[in-house]
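Recap from last week: sequence in, structure out.
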Amino acid sequence: METIGIGVIGCGGMGRSLANGAHAVEGIEVICVSDLQEELAKTLADNLNTKYTTDYHELLANDNIQAVLIASPPFLHAQMAVDAANAGKHVFSEKPMAPTLEDCDAMITAASENDTKLTIGLVCRYHATHSKVREIVHSGELGAPVNMMVHRIGGPWGGGNRVPWRLVREKSGGSLMEINAHEIDFMRWTCGDVSRVYGVGGQYIHEHTDYPDVVLASLNFKNGAVGLLHSSHAAAVGGYGGRVDCEKGSIYFPQIWGGDAAIQIKPFESEGRSIKISDIQVPPPVQQEIRVFIEAVRNDTPPLITGADGRAAVEIALAAYKSVEIGEPVALPL
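Predicted C-alpha cells:
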C-alpha cells in the first residue's frame, strides 16, 4: 500500500482530532502540522513525533505532502484550500465548508482547475445512528420518506468554546453552519435536495453573538417530503435526536448516542423492531472519514462527500438565516 503524506493546518481541538485520527490509519503519515499559535503546533507535533511550522505555506511547499487536512476557523478555509489546491495538494476541509457561497465556489473551482480532490468533514455520515437511519430509509422497506425532523439543542457557548471568531457569523457561519452543517447534511443525505427553506427564530439568550440562538428551519425537499430542523443555544435541557416518517411506517431515534439509545422502526401494518445504537458496529468515524478521503486520493476516484455536498449545507443555512430576517420562505438556489 502506498503511504500518503499529509499535513494538518490548524492545531486546535478539531485539528488535533483529525491529526490523531489520521495517525491511526494505516498508510497515512502525518508529515507536518501548522498553526499560528506555535505552542499548539509544537505540542501536536511532539505528540505525533513529526514536524511543525507556524506558516502553512511552508507546509504546502513540502513535496512529501500529498494532501492536507484543514481545521482552521471557517472563515480561513477558502484561502487555505485554494492555496493548497494551487500547490497540487488534495484537500479535506472541516465543516462548515466556508461561511459564504462565493468562498465555497472558489474552493470547488481551485480543486477542479488543479485536478485535486476536495472533500468536506461531514463526519456524521459515518456515525452509527445517522448511517443506519439513512440506510433504512433508502432500503425502501417503509416506502418513500414524507417527513424528517431533527433537533440538536443546548445552552449558550461557554468555556473554551467561547472564542471570539465563533461568536461572529461572518467568521464562523453561526450555529446553523458550524454545528448544524451536520444535521442539514444528514437531512439532505437522507431525503434529497432542498427546494425551499422557511425559518423562524431570533436571538434570545446569547448576547455575545451576532446570529440567532434559536432557529426552526422548515425544509421542502424536491421529492415532496418536508423536514424540520430545531437548532438552539437556548436550551437548559439539551438533546439530539429525531424521526423520519415514511409512507409505510416510521423511524424514531430520540437520542443519537449514549446510554440505552435505540432506533425504533415501526411499519403501520406489522410489528416493529428496535436496534440498540451500541450494537451498530461502525469504524471510528473520524478515522473513517479520513480513510475514505485518502482512498480516493490513492485510487484517483471521486471523494464520497464532495465540495457540492459541503456547499449545499452552507446554502441551506444561508437560506434559513435569510428567511428568519425577512419573515418569508426562501427558494433555492440562492
